[in-house]
Amino acid sequence: MKKTTVEKLNKVLDVTGDLIPVERIKKEKAPTVEITTTDLTTDYDFSRDQYHTLVTKGNDALDELLAVAKESESARAYEVAAMLIRNLSDTTKELLQLQKTKKEIEKDVKDPHTVNNSLFIGSTKELQDLLLENKKNGK
Length: 139
Description:
The protein is mostly helical. The chain has a domain at 57-103. 68% of the residues lie in helices and 0% in strands. The protein has helices at 5-13, 37-72, 75-109, 124-137. It is flat and about 90 Å long.
């Protein structure tokens, strides 16, 4: 006689009796998050200010680091200065990328400015004649 999986598990786990059914909890979908232009503008302004602060402080640190590197004539000091220059360059690129991303999001959020709807007033026969005439003329 074959044992069922439940019987085998009961023997291994030293459990007697039947399984107790567990009710499944229905998962609710998370509410959708709407992007508002005020949140976008606030976040953009904050990020932009942070990037500007980082670039400004980085430039100040770079000036001091280059002075130290000149005085010490240490290869390591020049290497650190080069890394800082690269990081400042990357931060500047990220600032431009932030601007581009904001424009893309704003374009998605805004409604279209121009909507062209053509409306024909007349009978179906007149419309068919007009379309046939346009087809003959190559329009």
